[in-house]
Amino acid sequence: xxxxxxxxxIDYTESIQPAPTKRxxxxxxxxxxxxxxxxxxxxxxxRPQWFDDIVFGSCLNSAGQSGNVCNxxxxxxxxxxxxxxxxxxxxxxxxxxxxKAQRVVAAARxxxxxxxxxxxxxxxLLERYEEDARIEAKLAYSxxxxxxxxxxxxxxxxxxxxxxxxxxxxxxxxxxxxxxxGTH
Length: 184
Description:
Blueprint: E1 30-31, H1 38-41, H2 49-63, E2 65-66, E3 69-70, H3 74-80, E4 85-86, H4 89-93, H5 98-120, H6 123-138, H7 157-165, H8 168-181
Antiparallel strand pairs: 1-4, 2-3
């Protein structure tokens, strides 16, 4: 019996941290207006030049520079554009430092606004990317039911002893013979 398989694309995993205190600024959460089409926009081989220009400008304007070097990379910002909502926590869970994660999210928020306004001014381009996203969602791997994997048979102890003894040629031949017994 085949069990249905659903690929669950989670923006981030739950962090195991103590409950937040009620002091300080509340965490900012902004919806990403281009989350549904970012996969088509950011594909490396087909990425338009205007996409790179907007993301680069956002990196410089939002994140700033230190020592004439941008504080965030374009790849980090492009990766953050895939989030459904712009929050810092997924980047912290991925191991990024807090201040850098805040800069990346700020630049991604700025870039998403720039990309969205660019596409709003070009409705035929926006429609093309939305149509590509609909086709991609329709044909996505997550809609396919997978057949459960049947594990391999347990290898007998005398074959394992050949490997432990260091006789790898005899071990490989014995293991091959054992595996082929079940297929004939």
